[in-house]
Write a structure and sequence with these properties.
This protein has 231 residues and is an alpha/beta fold. It has a single domain, classed as 3-Layer(aba) Sandwich (Rossmann fold), CATH 3.40.50. The chain has 8 helices and 13 strands. The strands form 3 sheets. The chain has an 8-stranded mixed sheet. The protein has a 3-stranded antiparallel sheet with strand order 1-2-3. A two-stranded antiparallel sheet has the order 8-9. A hairpin with a 2-residue loop joins strand 2 and strand 3. The N and C termini lie far apart (33 Å).
C-alpha cells in the first residue's frame, strides 16, 4: 500500500490495482470509468452489484458512495487483495468478499437474474504487465448474462483496444439481441477501454444529474468529467 494525502493505492508486482480517496470518490482516474455506466441509471435501480476482479475495492467503494446499492459481491483470486480491501478500504462492511476463481464461482452460482451491475475486470499481472485471466469468449459472456437481472448493466474492462469490436455482445446473435445498447469510455494516458452493455438505453440526463449531485456533495470532484472520453 502507498498513500498520498487521503489517497490510498494498492500496488502488486508493479501494477496499480486500486486507488481510493473518500473525499474525492470520482478522482479523474481510470477506475471512474468502470463505475460511470451505473450512473446512467437511477440510484434505486442498482440494488445488487457483482464485481469479478475486486482488487482492493475501488469500484465497490465508488458504487457504495455514489449509488448505495443494497448488496455488493466481490470476488478476487488473491486473498491478499481482499485482506487489504477489508483493512484499508473498509470493504468488509457492506460487501460480501469471496476469495475464489471467478469463472468457477460464476459457473456454479445459483443467483441467476440477480445482479443489476456486473463487472468483468479479470486481470492478473506478469512481469509488471496486466494479463487477462480467462478468455472473454461467447460462453463466458452468456454466463454473465444469465446472472444479470433484466435491464441490468454488463461492464468489461479491456486493456487491448483492438479487441473491443470483437467482444461477444457485438458479435453473438443471442447476445446482440439481449444487449442492443452499449457505451464506451476511455481516458488519455490509458490503453483501457471500458465497455458497457444493456437492454435499455443509457440515460444521458440521468448521468448528468448524478454528476451534478456528486460534485455538489464532493466539491473536489468538480472538473474530473473533462477527463472522460465517451464513444
Amino acid at each position: 500500500m502507498r498513500s498520498a494525502g487521503a489517497t490510498l493505492r494498492l500496488y502488486r508486482n508493479g501494477v496499480n490495482h486500486s486507488q481510493w480517496n473518500p473525499n474525492r470518490p470520482l478522482s479523474g482516474c481510470i477506475w471512474d470509468l468502470i463505475s460511470l455506466p451505473a450512473l446512467y441509471r437511477p440510484a434505486e435501480s442498482v440494488k445488487e452489484a457483482l464485481i469479478l476482479g475486486f482488487g482492493a475495492g475501488t469500484v465497490a467503494a465508488q458504487l457504495r458512495e455514489l449509488l448505495a446499492p443494497e448488496r455488493v459481491v466481490g470476488l478476487d483470486i488473491d486473498p491478499m487483495h481482499l485482506s487489504i480491501a477489508d483493512g484499508f478500504f473498509d470493504c468488509a462492511e457492506g460487501c460480501e468478499l469471496i476469495a475464489a476463481d471467478a469463472v468457477e464461482w460464476a459457473n456454479e452460482c445459483q443467483e441467476e437474474g440477480r445482479f443489476d451491475y456486473i463487472l468483468d475486470d479479470l486481470y492478473g499481472e506478469e512481469n509488471g504487465i496486466p494479463v487477462r485471466c480467462t478468455p472473454m469468449d461467447a460462453q463466458w459472456c452468456h454466463r454473465l448474462a444469465e446472472l444479470l437481472r433484466p435491464g441490468g448493466i454488463l461492464v468489461f474492462n479491456l486493456i487491448e483496444p483492438r479487441k473491443v469490436p470483437h467482444l461477444p455482445p457485438f458479435k453473438d446473435a443471442k447476445l446482440k439481441k439481449r444487449f442492443p445498447h452499449s457505451i464506451q469510455f476511455k481516458m488519455e494516458g490509458y490503453e483501457n477501454r471500458i465497455v458497457a452493455f444493456s437492454e435499455q438505453p443509457f440515460d444521458e440526463s440521468c448521468f448528468k444529474e448524478h454528476l451534478r449531485r456528486i460534485c455538489k456533495q464532493y466539491p473536489r470532484c468538480y472538473g474530473v468529467a473533462k477527463r472522460y472520453v465517451q464513444s
